[in-house]
Amino acid sequence: MKGSPCSFSPKTPGHRPDSAGDVAAQLAAIINADDTDAIQSSDEKVRKLTAEFGETAPATLEARLHRVRLIAASGDIAGAVRECDRIAAQYAQMYGTYDHRTCDVRNMKQRLTFPG
Questions:
Q1: DSSP-derived secondary structure letter, 17
Q2: Confidence band, pLDDT 50/70/90 cuts, at residue 22
Q3: Residue 100's closest CA among 109, 91, 110?
């Protein structure tokens, strides 16, 4: 099926970037620098809250939800959905499966997965 739009050809080493720096530069061209700064700031806040209060503390979970929104806004929907799954499991463990906070996280995941 040569020439078919469904044909697949694996990448050769010549198609791959030479270094991690090249990959970072390519990603920087795709991702808005403001988004990256906001995500890094959010990561730092989550680290501080986790160190001070623990991973499942309400303030930490809220900060992680904020980070999910930033991750999704940057275009990494799959990463945001994975983090929603982790947070939803922790909310369910802390508050129960049908608590409004747990349901809100699951609804967020639903909106990320099926926008519009």
A1: -
A2: confident
A3: 91
Any idea how long the chain is?
A: 116
Instruction: Answer for the pair 101, 113: CB distance below 8 angstroms, yes or no.
Output: no
Phi-psi sector, 11: left (phi>0), alpha (psi -120 to 50), beta: beta
Identity of the amino acid at 115: P
Which phi and psi angles does 64 have, rounded to 5°? -65, -35
Contact of 110 with 81, CB cutoff 8 Å: no
Tell me the pTM.
0.66
Whole-number pLDDT of residue 100: 93
Letter for the amino acid at 17?
P
